[in-house]
Amino acid sequence: MPWATRLAKALQRVDPTGLLYATYEQRLLAQLDRTRLPRHVAVMADGNRRWARLNAPDAPIAVGYQAGADKLKQFVGWCDEVGINVVTVWVLSTENLSRSSSEEVAPLLEVIERLVVELAAQRSWRVQTVGDLDLLPEAMAERLRRASASTDSNAGMHVNIAVSYGGRHELRDAFRSLLAAELAKGTSLEELAETLEIDQIADHLYTAGQPDPDLVIRTSGEQRLSGFLIWQSAHSEFYFHEALWPDFRKVDFIRALRSYAQRERRFGR
After folding, report:
1. Residue ranges of the domains in the chain?
2. Residue 115 DSSP class
3. Which one is catalytic: 80, 96, 154, 173?
């Protein structure tokens, strides 16, 4: 176990009020190289169901979903505090929708809707849902669109909520959009095949116009991307953490930023 983790655990044992732990947290923050922070941080907030089974085995699984949503709100605040420009959080995949029963997914959808509405209500961030909202119940999709639209004029941090999102699904939608746009301009398939450039595809992604994620964090010990931002993350740095998402702490986030700052980014070179 790394010495920093041992120290953090020791502080928690001897300081139940959290005063020493808060001091340790602030010390880590002060040591961050603010010139080497990522512009865009993306997170795969994994482990909510497992957290519920471990911590509230007799409660509905929605307890884990809500704990995860509460942590996401904290996480967005942490990103804003250190000056991150864009944050993307993945809350629901297209696979979750197709594999889960309606009874199982309904509580999760309720938690997600509250999360988006509450983040939008902060009135300081630009909140955008990224994904295929047409796969969601129509009333929910409309409420998410309204919540997102209400933040269009906000000039603060850009917060992407990836809901009903799948990487392959995004690429399919991007190509559909690209082909439709070129057809409207009168471009033939032969012309497009000869002239298509990478930037043209990027312009039709859900995150068009945004910087690609510099840092992608995944919790719960899983070390795979599962299709998350597969186009945008081509040159991202990855940070995997063993904590289940609701147990992910601010010090864990700061350590992820510190790890990123210490890396030499090669961008495929």
Report:
1. 1-31, 39-261
2. H
3. 96
Q: What is the rounded CA–CA span in Å between residue 113 and residue 69?
A: 10
CA distance 33 to 258: 8
Question: Residue 46 catalytic?
Answer: yes
> For the domain with range 39-261, which CATH number is right: 3.40.640.10, 3.40.1180.10, 3.30.450.20, 3.40.50.1110?
3.40.1180.10
Q: What is the DSSP letter of 245?
A: G
Catalytic annotation on 80? Answer: no
Mean pLDDT of 146-154: 96
Structure tokens at 241: 């953490």
Residue 150 CB-density burial (10 A; 0-12 exposed, 13-18 middle, 19+ buried): middle
Please report which confidence band the pLDDT of residue 183 belongs to, taking 50, 70 and 90 as the band edges: very high
- For 269, the 3-state DSSP assignment is coil
Task: Give the per-residue pLDDT at 18.
Answer: 67
The pTM of this model reads 0.88
Catalytic residue (choose from 46, 132, 212, 214): 46
Task: Give the whole-angstrom CA distance, residue 145 versus residue 116.
Answer: 10
